[in-house]
Every structure is written in structure tokens, then in C-alpha cells.
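seq:
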Amino acid sequence: MAVDEHTAREVVVRAADELFYARGVQAVGMDAVRTASGLPLKRIYGLFASKDELVLAVLAYRRSLWETGLAAATERAADPRGRVLAVFDFLDEWFREPDFRGCGFVNIYGELGACSGEVADAVRRQKEHFQDHVRRMVEEAGLPAYVAPQVALLAEGAQTTAAISGSPEAARQARAAAETLLDAAGTS
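struct:
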């Protein structure tokens, strides 16, 4: 049964994402992607001219997952302040997943950022987009502008801490720090 190009790309990206996230990009060869996707190597290289191109597609996929999950979590909040704090509820759920291994963007940046400008740029764009998202939520909550980068740093730090410690508690601790920050900014 022939698989159309869109479906084949999706299958390869998902397979590569799982492998890269679990083992690292450099530890995963294209043969492993072939095995995991069930598609011939020739077809994979017909879809992605290089492994670097596949890595960029994985980053785009991860960005989509992140944005969808974050939007769902923040939309459930009852008010603008709650939307800011919901970022940490989203993180708490994610940190409790059995395959959590930290931020996939940071992981890939750590492996390839120094030698691939395209990867570094993609990761920077993702991080800037997250900061812009937090900035908009902070504005909607009527908070001072200086609060946004601080909230984003708490979220980023929680991801790293949870990955290294192996404990999801970093999300709750970062949420408590964010609540203190919001209170100090005058929005109880």
C-alpha cells in the first residue's frame, strides 16, 4: 500500500522525534529512522534531502506540539493571571510523562547548535516565540512588562531542573515562585 508524501513525512518525523528525544540526534543513524518509520531509506531521503533537514522538521513538529499543549493549558484558566500560572501546570503534566527528557529544543541545540546555524536559528525562534507568548499573557493580566522574561526564565529553568533531577517537582516550585513574582508585581 502506497503512502502519500504528507503521511510519509509525518511518519518519518514522528519516528525521528521519538528516537532523537530518547537517544540524541548524533546517536541515531538514518537506518534507525528507517526501521522505526517502516519506510525505505531511499523514500526517506526523497522526503528529506539530509539528516539536518529531518532535524529541522522534527523541531517544527516539536514546536507544534508545544504550542498546542500550552494553548490548551492556558485556555482552561479562568482569568489572565491564571493563564500565566497555567504555563507551570502544563509543565507539571509534561514532567510527569514517563518519557520526559527535558526540552527537546535545548537538547538538540546542545548537540548541534554550535555546528548548525539553521538548528540554532530554529531553536532561538522557538524560544523567542515562547517569550512573546508569555509577554502577551502578562500584558493581558495587566502586569508590568518586566514580569514576562522572569516568568519565561522560571519555565525554562523548571524544564532543565526537572530533566536533570528526574523529578516533576520543579514545575510546582517554579509555579510558586511565579505566584510570588505576580504578587510582588501587584496583581493578587
